Amino acid sequence: MMPTNDFFIWVPLLFLCSSLFLLKIIRKQAKPNNRLLPPTPPKLPLLGHLHLLGSHPHRSFTKLSKKYGPVMLLQLGSVPTIVISSAAAAKELFKFHDLASCSRPRLTGSGRFSYNFLDLNLSPYGERWRELRKICMLHLFTARRVQSFREIREEEVGRLLNSISQSSSSSSPIDLSEKSYSLTANITTRVAFGSIFSGAKLDDEHFQHVIRRAVAAIGSFSMADFIPTFGWIIDRLNGVHERLEKSFAEMDAFFQHVVDDRINFKESSKNEENIVDVLLRMERESSESDALKVTQDCIKALIMPPHMELDVAASSNVVPSQVGLEVGTVVVYGDPIAAVTEWVAEDIGLQ
Predict the structure, then answer these.
(1) How far apart are CA 217 and CA 106, in angstroms?
(2) What integer pLDDT is reported at residue 315 of this predicted model?
(3) Which long-range contacts (CB under 8 A, 24 or more apart) does 154-163 make?
(4) Taking the domains of the chain in order of start, what are their residue ranges?
(5) What are the TM regions of this chain, as residue ranges (predicted)?
(6) What sign results for the dihedral spanned by CA atoms 306, 309, 314, 317?
């Protein structure tokens, strides 16, 4: 008869070995045919091909594509990823397999700041996305509503010109990057939020600070995106999760103030609706039976990306570069009135 102590040792060991053997069989059966997969470099356990990316992933992709072809398979942690490095392959993908590739990856930072993918930019393609797009096209971005914001655009452009004129009169240096950023940010915030806030005007410096912290948090490297099983533990140990939550709480408090302010302001005003007002009206009119119920989280998710992901990034990089290019054209070719008039007519569309 086997001693009791040996029994409690061998039974768990036998169970563990059997489980590992069955798991190996299941994984082998579920493994797809390698002949159907693109070429792939040798990989490391757990990390996959993350070690091959280096500090300049785009250069690493170029180098790898020269060896493994324009379509290759990379294992980023435990996430299989197809990398396309040629225009012909990209054209075929978007032309014949658009539905399979039109959704963005569900990343940790993007999901947190979009209130679990409630916005239009990051929401996966499906029935909800189509309903959300329909709402935006029918209620937010109509030609009539865009035309109603023309006065805001003209006021902000006039304010920019006055500021430049005053700086020129006093021979002060002009930071075109900062001024072009302020122009785009002011137009965006006035169109989305309105220009009147309870207590005081919108604090531009605080607004920019909050958004830039949010953009940095979203762009930070998160192990949970590559190794979902235990990557979240690493994120908590190295402080990534804490920084993400702190930045989100700051951003959420800011946009909640915007929503609350518009609720209080509209109770005593009948002025033209801005985008937040339209969404709040839809929230009041929506019901549980609607295909897409508008909530305050949904409202904040919809008004957040234009500032956080698009306008701030574009305003601080693309727009200043474009303005600098046009100013350089004026300096080189002379006739500033004609150059500026042509630029406004072509790029902005004002007569």
Answers:
(1) 15
(2) 41
(3) 154/350, 156/183, 156/186, 156/187, 156/190, 157/183, 159/186
(4) 127-170+183-317
(5) 7-26
(6) positive
